[in-house]
Amino acid sequence: MWFLLNRLCLKCKVKLCFQTVKLYKSTSTIENGVIMDTLRQLGFAELEANQIARNKHVQNVEIPKMKRILERIKKLGFSPGEIVKYRTFLTLSPIAIDHYYKILEECGVSVDNIKLEFLSRTKFLKLLKMPTSELKKKGLIEKGIDVKKNILRYSDLPSGIHVPETDDSQCLEMTQTDAVKLYLCWRLDLKREEVDKMYRSYKCLHYKSIRLVRQCYDVVTSNIGMSVEKVRRNGYLLQGHPDNYL
Q1: 131 has which bridge partners?
Q2: DSSP code of 115?
Q3: With 90 as the cut, is the pLDDT of residue 64 above it?
Q4: How far apart are CA 119 and CA 104, in angstroms?
């Protein structure tokens, strides 16, 4: 290719460059038009759609993926104005967004306190690294909530199983992980060290909503027909999203 370019005269090279730029602009215009049409179909006003479509990061997102993300974000109750403000969220995984939102809700953060910016990986991890006591001081979690028990309330853990009180001096991540591990010990009939080993083997089990873990378990055992033993040996089955198995 470079050999052929070197043999062209200067005039031909300039002409080729001009045609390449023209083709790029034409392609970009078409892509922006498709993005605009998709956004309008999802209920965005012309100005909002234009602001999103002009973002360079958004232009690299495939239309089907963008549509899935927008549908999920809108379903969670975020307004078009918030989506325009934090439009780089369109580059994230819709599965991660769902897990992050549900984790915060399960930990006791009220729906009114969950902002779209909290669902970015950087901001989300920052919140999870904070002690529960600090999150309560900030008003993100009500003072009377026992976070671990609140998380397990979203599972089918029998009420007779003892759940230790939450130590609010611990970071939220530790409390959330401990709650999910407690649930898996019961659900899979495993010892704590066996669940710990599963977490070390399957890193993606971290930062997973207990509701979605439970739903994944129900789908692979009830709908697909896998045995509990197979789930024990293949912990990665619990790290995805139930929609992916249906």
Answers
A1: 171
A2: -
A3: no
A4: 9
